[in-house]
Specification:
Layout lengths: L1 E3 H11 L12 E4 L4 E6 L9 E8 H4 L9 H22 L11 E2 L13 E3 L3 E8 L3 E2 L2 E2 L1 H20 L6 H20 L5 E6 L6 E3 L2 E4 L14 E6 L3 E9 L2 E5 L6 H10 L13 E3 L3 E3 L8 E4 L17 E3 L4 H14 L4 E5 L5 H4 L3 H6 L14 H8 L2 E5 L12 E6 L2 E4 L1 H10 L15 E3 L18 E5 L2 E4 L2 E4 L9 H17 L7 H15 L2 H4 L11 H9 L12 E3 L4
Parallel strand pairs: 1-2, 15-21, 15-22, 17-20, 20-21
Antiparallel strand pairs: 2-3, 3-4, 4-7, 5-7, 6-7, 8-9, 10-14, 10-16, 11-12, 13-14, 18-19, 22-23, 24-28, 25-26, 26-27
Helix pairs in contact: 1-4, 3-4, 3-5, 12-15
């Protein structure tokens, strides 16, 4: 039931000095002059998770031109921009107003990826903002006057400065929205041009550090495409743009150490997302089904068919339905690849720095010393072309130490002083003049990509004290029930809020789609369809403000890393193509 803002003010005045739990009485919906304020959840004490608030602002009150929100990608872009503005205002107003989290005001702020997120959403009705406030207290006593200042002074000012068009720089808003829309348009052109990725001329690829995704400002060399790879694409707002297009097939990125090989690959792997203006990678776009894979010693593998890469184990253990609680580097990399293929990856990204050497290559000399009959692993070099020819799955590899890959590559890009060169002809000539003499291993066919069905009972969200326990301590860790899942190898996760959404999505999929017969691929497709039609709230059932959109690949990867995961017996089926 809608109540007046003055009712809320009166309640807060009357709560002054009372015990903290009395704050629970303010939960509800209140009509302010310019917007509706909803208090969904009130914290139990000043040290607990802050209270959850929402603001509903009509389009007439916000006054943004219809052109800025005329399609879905523009709505997402505008919401992202406004969320950043609200975050800036929240930082200014957030201050200590007592003990614990008293006085805190925060929102799930975007970083270097533009994502659909629940923190700020735009639809045909208007804007919805979800944020957190730490209700003030001294000791365990309510500071009602301080709460009034936050809700009746600070918050209206934040709304006015961050969410009303008249108070924002119109040129910056338009540039942000149009940049994101242009990047999405570039990505949508890739398949028709038989391209895997596009890197615009002038792009700034290096980041500040391995833990800071912001662009390196000083000393960064602007990207410039080699003539042989240069293509021109069109943007609906900014017009044509030139850059390097990477074609379908097998592409090697080579070069000396510290010349930019891995930097280029990291830019390509992040190109599955759109980026804000000033990121440097605004117009670096990659096919949305690209998956970065690496070795991951110690991960669990549950029922994966790794037989395309590993066979004839010494103790006759099956690799068609392979289980282990402690995979080696090569075994984990094989599992990571087949699991990505199972849910529809069309492009694999690999960097030899994070790969298992014995998975990537077995050279001529080693083949002479150790017979194939004694080596269960078929190296990736013998499968990479088969994968492309049989299933249309392309690969981009960073290779600095094995020229044997020249023999299987369609194109070779060399990085020299952070600039790319086309060395495809030279690489082919070297391969012809200096053949590797290695014998091809693993047969003439890649093998089957096997679909699996999950036993729902193997996903147990119950902890020692709760029926459902989901927690995300950081961007690389997910807690599901009593199990802590290490996601540190999922390099394409951009934000912690995506991991939160994945945690909820695991539970949602278990409750709605896992029946022991549905394949993991079908479950992932149904999950993503529900999100596309009903929004991210379908996962949580209540209006959380700190979850963001993810891909089916990272969801499946989290599922596959549950150590208790079990695959339904006799429920898997071989599929002949990737849908």
């Amino acid at each position: 039931m809608m109540q007046s803002a003055e009712t809320l003010r009166f309640r807060l005045q009357s709560l002054e000095g009372r015990g903290y739990k009395a704050y629970k009485t303010i939960k509800g919906r209140y009509a302010f002059s310019a917007y509706t304020l909803i208090i969904d959840y009130v914290q139990g004490d000043p040290f607990a998770t802050p209270s959850r608030f929402r603001i509903l602002l009509s389009h007439s009150a916000a006054s943004f031109p219809k052109t800025l929100r005329q399609n879905r990608i523009r709505q997402i872009a505008l919401a992202d921009y406004l969320c950043r503005q609200f975050h800036l205002q929240a930082k200014k107003k957030s201050k200590n107003r007592g003990i614990g989290k008293s006085g805190l005001i925060e929102i799930d702020a975007p970083k270097q990826a533009v994502l659909l997120r629940t923190a700020l959403m735009i639809d045909s009705d208007g804007l919805e903002v979800r944020f957190f406030m730490g209700l003030p207290a001294r000791g365990r006593s309510i500071l009602g006057k301080q709460a009034i200042e936050m809700i009746f002074s600070d918050l209206p000012e934040m709304v006015e400065k961050a969410l009303q068009y008249k108070n924002l720089d119109a040129a910056l808003v338009r540039a942000f929205v149009e940049t994101v829309e242009d990047a999405e348009a570039l990505r949508n052109q890739l398949a028709d041009r038989a391209l895997l990725a596009f890197v615009a001329n002038g792009a700034i690829l290096p980041r500040k550090s391995g833990i800071d995704a912001r662009p390196l400002k000083e000393g960064a060399v602007p990207f410039q495409s080699p003539a042989a790879f240069q293509v021109v694409l069109d943007r609906p707002n900014a017009g044509v743009i030139a850059g390097m297009g990477i074609p379908f097939g097998v592409t090697l990125i080579v070069g000396g150490g510290y010349h930019g090989k891995s930097t280029l690959l990291r830019a390509i792997e992040s190109g599955i997302y759109n980026h804000p203006p000033g990121d440097g990678r605004e117009y670096v776009v990659t096919h949305s089904d690209a998956v970065k894979v690496r070795a991951e010693d110690g991960r669990a593998v549950s029922g994966a068919d790794i037989s395309p890469f590993i066979n004839n184990l010494p103790l006759k253990q099956s690799t068609d339905v392979f289980y282990t609680q402690n995979a080696s580097g090569s075994t984990s990399q094989a599992a990571n690849i087949v699991e990505a293929l199972e849910v529809g990856a069309s492009l694999l990204l690999l960097d030899e720095d994070t790969a298992a050497t014995n998975f990537m290559i077995r050279d001529h000399r080693m083949q002479k010393l150790i017979a194939k009959s004694q080596e269960p692993i078929t190296p990736f070099i013998d499968k990479v072309r088969q994968l492309y020819m049989a299933y249309g799955v392309s690969t981009i590899l960073v290779i600095g130490g094995s020229g044997d890959y020249f023999e299987v590559a369609d194109q070779v890009i060399a990085m020299e002083n952070f600039l790319p060169k086309d060395v495809s002809a030279e690489a082919r000539a070297i391969a012809e003049k200096y053949p590797s003499k290695r014998a091809k291993e693993g047969g003439e066919a890649f093998g089957q990509i096997t679909a699996r069905a999950v036993l729902p009972k193997s996903l147990n969200p119950k902890s020692r004290t709760r029926e459902v326990y989901l927690k995300v301590p950081d961007i690389k860790t997910l807690v599901f029930g009593n199990e802590t899942v290490d996601l540190s190898a999922l390099e394409q996760v951009a934000e912690k809020s995506q991991v939160r959404a994945i945690a909820h999505a695991l539970l949602y999929a278990k409750n709605h789609y896992m029946d022991g017969d549905a394949t993991l691929s079908d479950i992932a497709a149904a999950l993503m369809w529900d999100i596309s039609k009903q929004g991210l709230d379908v996962l949580t059932g209540i209006p959380y403000g700190d979850v963001a959109i993810f891909r089916r690949f990272e969801w499946a990867a989290a599922l596959n890393r549950l150590r208790g995961l079990e695959i339904a017996p006799n429920a898997s089926e071989n599929v002949e193509e990737i849908s």
